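To the team - uracil complex, inputs and output below.
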Amino acid sequence: MRLNAWLARAGVASRRKADELIKAGRVTVNGAPGELHTVVQPGDQVALDGRRLARQELAYVLLYKPSATVTTASDPQGRRTVVDLVDHPARVVPVGRLDADTTGALLLTNDGELAHRLAHPSYEVDKVYEVECWTQPTDAELERLRAGVELHDGRSSPAVVRRLDGARIELTIHEGRNRQVKRMIEAVGRRVKRLHRSRYGPLTLEGLEPGAWRELEPLEVEQLRSTAASSLLP
Ligand code: URA
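Output:
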């Protein structure tokens, strides 16, 4: 495995940051300075600033994100972060983000390769949202959401939209732009009162309470991987 990938896997830094550490001469492999092209073999000893690093096992976690938690590493307002909620020995980080007031399914992993693919817009993982609006959208507005609406960063892709009851709808999209669902709803003249992600690809929240998490089953990891493999990415 390439040294930068090994460092990312060990939870040290992203691959790009790892390249910087390598270029700065801070990483050694078996006592010799690491190079960008260095390949780490099983049994090699990798150190950062002279401290030996241990390789981490890959970990995949599904969290039922509760409200009033942030998806960033730390929050200036002192709110809890999703990472605080997941007491796991591996340094898992969220894939994509949910707004502080959004609840629901959030994947966390230390598998940088998979996370990178899943977060890429061309990766078509279905994300299913239950959206409660302050006022009831009309059928024509739901039709506009289905067709795709104009947002400041480009038109949204066609969505699957289903009315649940009154002002509650279910929206399935595969993009993950910042505040995308809220902006789509605003684009048709409504506002979101409550937003919940009930499904992320194959992952549902069945059996989880808000704030609780579980490890993914090997089959679920395989399902995520095979969708990533069939995406258009190189
Ligand atoms: N879309 C939003 O607007 N917010 C989220 O948290 C997720 C999707």
